[in-house]
Design brief:
Length: 307
Amino acid sequence: MSAEILVKASGLHKTFGKVKAVNNVNFEVRKGDIYGFLGPNGSGKSTTIRMMLGLIRPDSGSIMLFGEQMNQKKFKLLGRIGALIERPDFYTYHTAAKNLELLASYSGINLKPREQKRRIGETLDLVQLSERAHSKVKTFSQGMKQRLGIAQTLLHDPDLIILDEPVNGLDPQGIKDIRNLIVRLNEEMGKTLIVSSHILREMELIANRMLVINRGKVRVEGEVKALLKGEKVRVILSTNNPAKTIAILKNNGFAEKPEINKLQEIIFDLHSDRVPQLNKLLVEADIAVYQLNALNSLEDYFLSITA
């Protein structure tokens, strides 16, 4: 039985002036995913996230949340989502618990005082801030503020959590704390998460599925393990004769539609067992091979498709 689809984006387009920020973006987030949302600065990643949250409207295309069209039941559906966009803002002269109490009242989270106190305590405990519940936020490190920001997203017990660059600017310990928290939310609480990040190693450690967007277009979407560690590898090839090389790739069944980047490097997917065979064939064809790399890390993979 296939997993429930919590987010389905179809044909999203968004233009700002003459810039196509998002160009025909399609993806699905399934229940139980830690979904890595990757892209360089200016790729359209943040614009797409803001469309998912109803902060801006797409020029065309549609977004379905929890199986329903977003524009038909927007506020009801968004009420099932918790989101942390960029760095969270707090009343720094108030305590962590007081900040959550104020947020609950502003957000219309209707709980009886005793229930609200219990909920705030549980949430702070989950993000490992219970011992600092009554400390003023101005005394917190950036990593602690990020964890308090995530606590804000959890107050109403959402079904989907969206975190935009949650480890940006953190030291190694802070990054580790957020990573562990994301995994706990997913594995222990059954939460589905969309995590936007440029820290590629972190995404490789925690995400089970991912999307890479570049210049407004989806470059790849799929299972992280299948993309990085499956039988197929992403090959980046550089030779003295790119045109002849591409012809050999096509004629010998190595790649039907190889891509070529600005550096004249040829990029395609290939079964790992066939890489030595390809090298041998190129040498026999009197083609000088300058580079033949089989990429198997997320950083290598990301750079190869956004070059």
